[in-house]
Amino acid sequence: MVNTIEEKEIHMTSNTKTAVPYYKPVGKEIAIFKHSHNSKIPFLLKGPTGTGKSRFIEYMAHELDQPLITVSCHEETSSTDLIGRYIIKGAETVWMDGPLTMAVKTGAILYLDEIAEARPDVIVAIHSLTDHRRELFIDKLGKIIKAHPDFMLVASFNPGYQRGFKELKPSTRQRFVAVSFNYPEAKIETDILVNETNILEADAKKLVNIANKIRNLTELGLTETVSTRLLVDAAKLIRSGLPKRLTVHVAVVEPLTDDVEVVSALNDLCDLMI
Ligand code: ADP
Prior knowledge:
There is one protein chain. Strand 4 and strand 5 (92-97) form a beta hairpin. The protein has helices at residues 29-38, 53-63, 79-83, 99-106, 120-127, 170-173, 186-197, 201-216, 228-239, 244-253, 260-273; strands spanning 10-13, 43-46, 68-72, 84-89, 92-97, 109-113, 135-138, 143-146, 152-157, 177-180. Helix content is 40%, strand content 18%. By secondary structure, the chain is of the alpha/beta class. The protein has two domains: 13-180, 3-Layer(aba) Sandwich (Rossmann fold); 186-272. Helix 7 packs across helix 8 (201-216), helix 7 crosses helix 9 and helix 8 (201-216) runs antiparallel to helix 11 (260-273). The strands form three sheets. The chain has a six-stranded mixed β-sheet with strand order 1-3-6-9-2-10, sandwiched between helices. A two-stranded antiparallel sheet has the order 4-5. It has a two-stranded antiparallel sheet with strand order 7-8. It has eleven helices and ten strands. Adenosine-5'-diphosphate (ADP) binds at residues 22-24, 26, 49-55, 192, 196, 228-229, 232.
């Protein structure tokens, strides 16, 4: 069976007519990205899931008026998926560029989401694009392609989640400018919830307080704690009329853990705060 990358794993946007994605800056990330882009240096976003990494890249692509190609990497993602492959069309075999080759040729931003999940040959494939050469070697065609001047490689990586078993090697990391993303401070996170969902500010504040309380309970040993994404979803449910306590139970607590005792303790805690 031919292993092909599924379309749902690749997402392309061209920004000419789309609305500006809402992004609330949390630090100097916008300036750093612009300078990396000008200097043609690859960009690495580090941080837990749901902290605005993808939204930031969508925003930057729009700001810079560049097409964005996003690939959600997983353990099966290979260099062939990114570079391209021969496919059979009728009686012919034709070459089809993968998302990386397309981005290199057209000058798009290529965003490899969760790069450490991908197979090791992906890292090998991008090496010559991440240094002064800025070229892609397509072994199946025996061709070297020089990257378009606007091409930019961006990757994300979740250090906590991948701890121990899927690390990015120093030789790879040191090819990127790296910026850490984390849960924003309370005022900023409240603004995000209000902007994204139109929830009342008082309710948004309560959700953020609950999140920060749970985030500080490190003794629970949760693999991932409450993300801004979870809070946005909870805020949407409250806006749509689901009772607040129930919302917090199903949209904040339950997604975090399957440990019945922890769920029950967190539900009790949240009931006092919402
Ligand atoms: P990640 O890529 O880090 O997993 P996302 O970019 O998908 O996370 O963010 C999840 C959701 O959180 C977004 O859809 C958005 O609603 C919200 N969000 C998080 N941070 C921000 C931010 N700084 N500005 C605007 N929205 C944000």
